[in-house]
Amino acid sequence: MKLLLLLTVCVCGALTQANTDYDDDDAAEVKTTQPTGEHKDPRGHRPLTRGREVYTPVVAPPPVSGRGRYGPRPSVTTETKLQEEMKEIPDSGGCVHASETMGVLCPTGCELKTALLKQEHDVKPTVAQLKRDVEYLSQTSNSVYRYVEELSSEVRERQKINDGNDDLVSRYTDDLEVQHAYVKETVDVTFPQNIKILQAVLEKLRDKIQRLEKAVTDQKLKCAEPCVVSCPIPVVSGKDCEDVYRNGGESSEMYFIRPEASQTPYKVYCDQTSQNGGWLLIQNRLDGSVDFGRRWDDYKRGFGNVAFDVGKGYCETPGEYWLGNDRISQITKVGPTEVLIEMQDWAGAKTYAQYQQFTVQGEASNYILAVDKYSGTAGNTFNTGATELFGVNRTMTIHNGMMFSTYDRDNDRWVPGDPSKQCAKEDGGGWWYNACHSANPNGRYYWGGAYTKNMAKHGTDDGIVWMNWKGSWYSLKAISMKIRPFFVSK
């Protein structure tokens, strides 16, 4: 009987120990959803024992909310469309665009020809006048030289006069000698120096004119045919892609935007078809052609290929790129902004996650992320973390409220200050890492989808991961992030 009682106590103790592997708050969830088996870990290599690391929850800052920058889009009537179709197509300088009514920019060297010809027209008369001045100066100097020679002869003749001449003649002779000395010095020294300087200037101008003529000739040869560019950019522009859409840019392609009047316009890809358009692409992965394992400054400025042409005569296909944290922060802090994250697996299946509020703070705060109001089919990884994990393991994968990290700027929450524990180093790209992730859109690109710890550089889930859809060990074929000013539709 005693033996049976002792055995019962041991079994109860073992069961109690098994139920304390995770936080007490999640004990009920652990019992009901996964009563048996080993739980998955987001890092793929860390132990799962309770208290493995101390984690302090983060209070995420609220994203920018309030009234949107735009009201509902105005409806376009059939009569308005007919009027637009009747508009005369502007001269595009030989560039072809899918929507010719918008016109295009043709940023080739052909405009250089006009500028160079104008400069040549302005410079040539000036050089010709300078040449005439130099020739006149040369002639004048010769005349003065002859005059000085005559004075010299006269002085020599007067020196032969009898010494008995009166003082007046002597004083006159002295004055003449002084004048002679002054003029001779001017002719022998000053004039030659000035002439040499003018001749040097003239030679430099001649050299510049020759280079100018060569440049004009080269441009004439290049511009013998109409201007053709690989990526003609529509003339229509705006503060963002929503503004571009409202200004008439309804095709998805590369545009110039200018968020602030004092800012230089820059190129972006506008998605004008997904969910009624107006989306500005801030991140895109589709073929692994661009390395996202970049430094802090690269993520700050942006990198990659905005768009390219696949044979249609304009850049309608987005490339792999990151817009840049400074630009993302600037756009999202202006007013309420929503983000659309679209992804695709290697079998062609698609899903999405959308947040009605999305804000990225400035560099002073290390670009803290703030998101809210999720909808979609991919899973709310930003706010809830990976649903396949429990307790501290899940809270470590929440991205909302995190600072941005790169391998040379560690701002994650995985043992801060420990250089051997840096999420960006292990997971292949810059991101709003916690300790470390449930989503890793900027990770390493793996062809085929499934990959293993042995394939990963550090044995971690460093692929293009969205855990709530495909788990840690499946790298997506494509993923993109797009932002748009939030506005209420009619």
TrEMBL record:
GO terms for cellular component: fibrinogen complex. Residues 31-75 are annotated as: Disordered. Residues 195-222 form a coiled coil. Residues 232-487 form the Fibrinogen C-terminal domain. Transmembrane segments: none annotated. Residues 1-18 form the signal peptide. CDD domains: FReD (cd00087). SUPFAM superfamilies: Fibrinogen C-terminal domain-like, Fibrinogen coiled-coil and central regions. This is Fibrinogen beta chain.
